[in-house]
Design brief:
By secondary structure, this protein is α/β, with parallel strands linked by helices. The chain folds into two domains: about 5-45 and about 290-395, Aspartate Aminotransferase, domain 1 (Alpha-Beta Complex); about 50-290, Aspartate Aminotransferase, domain 2. Helices cover about 40% and strands about 15% of the residues. The protein contains 15 helices and 15 strands. The strands form four sheets. It has an eight-stranded mixed beta sheet with strand order 2-9-8-7-6-3-4-5. Strands 11-15-14 form a three-stranded antiparallel beta sheet. A two-stranded parallel ribbon has the order 1-13. It starts with 5 loop residues before the first helix and ends with a helix. The model has no long low-confidence stretch (mean pLDDT about 95). Bound molecules: pyridoxal-5'-phosphate (PLP).
Length: about 400
C-alpha cells in the first residue's frame, strides 16, 4: 500500500459526503429529493443570455489561450466597475486578481497567509472549505461563535477572546452559508475595529451579495479606513454560473499593509498559470451588463424561502431562524432523544423520508444539532419534501 498524505486525508466536505448513502438508495430505485447542494443551475436558474452569448463568442473567436496570471485587464476593469457600483470602493485593476471561482481565491489567500500553527478566525457554523482549506494549508481554523437567537450574527466578544499571537486574519461570510444570516453594518464596523486593534486583515466572502431578502448587503470593504480587507466574489451565485468556475478577489488596503502578502499570493497565482480565458470574457459581459434577470430570480427565491420557512415552523421538534440572504435555511433539532447526533438524524430522514439534508456538524462546532436545507427547487418539490419530512417527524415524536 502506498501511503497517502495525512494533509489530504484530513479533508472533509460534508455537503458531498452525504451523497454516497443517497446514491445507494437511488441504486435501489428509490427517488430521493436532494436538498443538499447549493447549485442554482440544477434547478430553474441559468446564467443570463448575454453571458452565455459572450462565452460562446469567446470560444468561436479564438479566445482559447492562456491569459495573464492576475486575470485579463478587461476583466479586472469590469470588476472595478462592478465593485465601485456595488460597494463604492476605491480600487484599481491592479488590486484585483481573477481566480477559478471563490474556492481558488480561498486556496490562494490561505496559501499566501498561513504557516503551520497559524490560525484564521472563521465563523461557526461556516461553509466547510473555511475549516478544511485552512487545515490543508497547515493552519488552525479558529471558530468564533455566532448568535443563533440573534439571526446568527457574529459574537464580537467571542471573536476577541479567540485572537492570539498566531491569528492571521478574520474571515466573514456574509450573507452566510449555511445560516442565511445577513450581517448588520454595526456588527461589521465592530469587526473592523477589532481587526484594527490587533492589526489583522479581514477576509470577506461576498458571493451572495445581491441575494438578500429584507436588508441590503454591506461590505466591510466599503467601511474600512485603514484595516486591510480582502473581498471575494464570483459568478457562481448572483450570476448563476456555478460550473464556469470563475471568481475574483481584491484588496482594499489604504495603508498598503498587505504588500508582502500580495507578493506571496502572486507567486501562487503564477504557479497555477491563469484562470479560464473564455469564462473571463463571459464574466465581463455579466459584470458590466444588465441585472434585470436577478429581480425575477429573487422573486422565485423569496417565494421558496417564505414557503419553506412557514412549513418548518409548523413541524414539531425543530425551530428555525428566517434566512435574510442566500438560499439556505439552518433549523435546529430541539427534540434530541431519538438520535445520537445530527448526522444520525439526517441519515434517518434520508432512509425513512428519502429527503437529503446536510448535517449541521459538517459546518463546524456550532452546527451540531442543526441541519441545512437548500431551498432552490420549485415550491412543488419543496412541498413534497416538507410533506415527507413532516410525516417523518410526527411519527418519530409520537
Ligand atoms: N463561498 C461560499 C460562502 C459558498 O457558499 C460557496 C458555495 O456554495 C463558495 C464560496 C464557493 O464558490 P465558488 O463556486 O465561487 O467556488
Amino acid at each position: 500500500m502506498i501511503r497517502p498524505s495525512e494533509r489530504a486525508m484530513g479533508v472533509e466536505y460534508a455537503i458531498r459526503d452525504v451523497v454516497l448513502p443517497a446514491r445507494e438508495l437511488e441504486k435501489k430505485g428509490i427517488k430521493v429529493i436532494s436538498l443538499n447542494i447549493g447549485d442554482p443551475g440544477k434547478y430553474d436558474f441559468q446564467p443570463p443570455e448575454h453571458m452565455i452569448e459572450a462565452y460562446c463568442r469567446a470560444l468561436r473567436e479564438g479566445h482559447n489561450y492562456y491569459g495573464p496570471s492576475e486575470g485579463l485587464l478587461e476583466m479586472r476593469e469590469a470588476v472595478v466597475q462592478r465593485e465601485k457600483r456595488k460597494n463604492g470602493v476605491d480600487i484599481t485593476p491592479d488590486d484585483v486578481r481573477v481566480t477559478a471561482a471563490v474556492t481558488e481565491a480561498l486556496q490562494l489567500i490561505f496559501g499566501g497567509l498561513l504557516d503551520p500553527g497559524d490560525n484564521i478566525l472563521v465563523p461557526s457554523p461556516s461553509y466547510p472549505p473555511y475549516t478544511g482549506l485552512v487545515k490543508f494549508y497547515g493552519g488552525i481554523p479558529n471558530e468564533y461563535e455566532t448568535i443563533e437567537e440573534n439571526g446568527w450574527q457574529p459574537d464580537i466578544e467571542d471573536m476577541r477572546k479567540r485572537i492570539n499571537e498566531r491569528t492571521k486574519a478574520i474571515a466573514v461570510i456574509n450573507p452566510n452559508n449555511p445560516t442565511g444570516a445577513l450581517y448588520e453594518k454595526k456588527t461589521l464596523k465592530e469587526i473592523l475595529d477589532l481587526a484594527g486593534e490587533y492589526d489583522l486583515p479581514v477576509i470577506s466572502d461576498e458571493i451572495y451579495d445581491l441575494m438578500t431578502y429584507e436588508g441590503k448587503h454591506v461590505s466591510p470593504g466599503s467601511l474600512t479606513k485603514d484595516v486591510p480587507v480582502i473581498v471575494m466574489n464570483g459568478l457562481s451565485k448572483v450570476y448563476f454560473a456555478t460550473g464556469w468556475r470563475l471568481g475574483y478577489f481584491y484588496y482594499v488596503d489604504p495603508e498598503d499593509k498587505l504588500a508582502e502578502v500580495r507578493e506571496a499570493i502572486d507567486r501562487l497565482t503564477r504557479i497555477r498559470i491563469c484562470p479560464s480565458t473564455p469564462a473571463q470574457l463571459a464574466a465581463i459581459a455579466g459584470l458590466t451588463g444588465p441585472m434585470d434577470y436577478l429581480e425575477e430570480y429573487m422573486k422565485k427565491l423569496r417565494e421558496r424561502r417564505d414557503y419553506i420557512y412557514k412549513r418548518l415552523t409548523e413541524i414539531p421538534g425543530i425551530s428555525t431562524q428566517k434566512p435574510q440572504g442566500a438560499f439556505y435555511i439552518f433549523p435546529r433539532i430541539e427534540e434530541r432523544s431519538k438520535w445520537k447526533s445530527d448526522k444520525e438524524f439526517v441519515l434517518d430522514v434520508l432512509h425513512q423520508a428519502h429527503v437529503l439534508f446536510v448535517h449541521g456538524s459538517g459546518f463546524g462546532r456550532a452546527g451540531e444539532w442543526h441541519f441545512r436545507i437548500v431551498f432552490l427547487p420549485p415550491v412543488e418539490i419543496l412541498e413534497e419534501a416538507m410533506d415527507r419530512f413532516e410525516e417523518f417527524m410526527r411519527k418519530r415524536l409520537s
